[in-house]
Amino acid sequence: MSAPAPFAKVEGCDLCRTKKITPWYHEDDICWVAECDVCDTPMVGWHWHGEAPPAEHGARMCARLKEVALTHFEKRWVDDHMRNVPDHWRAHARPADGFWGWQFRQRLPGALSRATGPSGAGRAGRAARRPAC
């Protein structure tokens, strides 16, 4: 996949490398949605390095995340706080009353999970340029 200008990938960035070490639910030329290896929730990641994707990319990424999240949690919230990699945009869909995916015991029937394999509100103070899922 070649980067359209001015988008680029950064060597050494875990999210730019996009190793498939957990179940993946979606991938296209803008984003991917996979289960986060830290919190076991669906996470959308931008294929390109940066904190502020263009609005059309943001809308598409949020839509893909919501589609996958509906198969995991009936009620959810979107967390776009970039904790471990602060300069690469991504967002997690979390259970409405929790943070961790494994903490939410009532996954919907037929939901995808790490065990079976592939088969909201944002945070306050979000930067204005970031997608609002």
Notes on the structure:
Helix content is 15%, strand content 18%. It has helices at residues 14-17, 55-70, and strands at 24-27, 31-35, 42-46, 76-79, 90-95. It has a domain at 14-95: HIT family, subunit A. A five-stranded antiparallel sheet has the order 1-2-3-5-4, with helices on one face. The model is unreliable at 103-128 (pLDDT under 50). By secondary structure, it is an alpha+beta fold. The radius of gyration is 14 Å and the shape is globular.
What's the mean pLDDT score? 74
User: What order do the strands of the largest sheet run in, or round the barrel if closed?
Assistant: 1-2-3-5-4
Helix content: 10-25%
What is the CATH architecture assignment of the domain at 14-95? 2-Layer Sandwich
Radius of gyration: 14 Å
User: H/E order of the elements?
Assistant: HEEEHEE
- CATH T-level fold name of the domain at 14-95: HIT family, subunit A
Number of discrete helical segments:
2
| Percent of residues in β-strands | 15-25%
Describe the sheet with the most strands.
5 strands, antiparallel
Oligomeric state:
single chain
Cα distance, first to last residue? Answer: 25 Å
Low-pLDDT sequence parts: 103-128
Shape: globular
Structural class: alpha+beta
Give me the secondary-structure topology.
Layout: H1 14-17, E1 24-27, E2 31-35, E3 42-46, H2 55-70, E4 76-79, E5 90-95
Antiparallel strand pairs: 1-2, 2-3, 3-5, 4-5
Question: Which descriptors apply to this entry?
Answer:
alpha+beta, five-stranded antiparallel beta sheet, 133 residues, 18% strand, HIT family, subunit A, 2 helices
